[in-house]
Amino acid sequence: MRGVPLPYLRCLGAGRVSALAPLVVAGVVVAAAPPAQAWEYDLLIRGGRVIDPANGRDGILDVAVSHGRIAKVAVDIDPARARAVVDAAGLVVAPGFVDIHTHVFFGTTDGTYLHNSYQTVAPDSFAPRSCTTTVVDAGSSGWRDVELFKAQTIAHSKTRVLAFLNIVGGGMRGGQAEQDLGDMDAARTAAAARAHRDAVVGVKVAHHAGPAWDPVLRAVEAARASGGRVMVDLGRHVPELSLRDLLLTHLRPGDIFTHVYADIPGRTPVVDAGGRVRPYVLEAARRGVVFDLGHGGGSFVFDQAVPALAQGLLPSSISTDMHLQSLNGAMGDMVNVVSKMLNLGMSLPDLIRRSTADPAAILGRPELGTLGEGAAADIAVLRLETGRYGYVDTSGARIDGERRLECAMTLRDGRVLWDRDGLTARRYDALRTPRPRRRPAARRRRRGPAGAGASRRARCPRPSAGWPRTARPHRGARPSRGPASTRGAHRR
Ligand SMILES: [Zn+2]
Question: Which class is 97-364 in CATH?
Answer without folding.
Answer: alpha beta
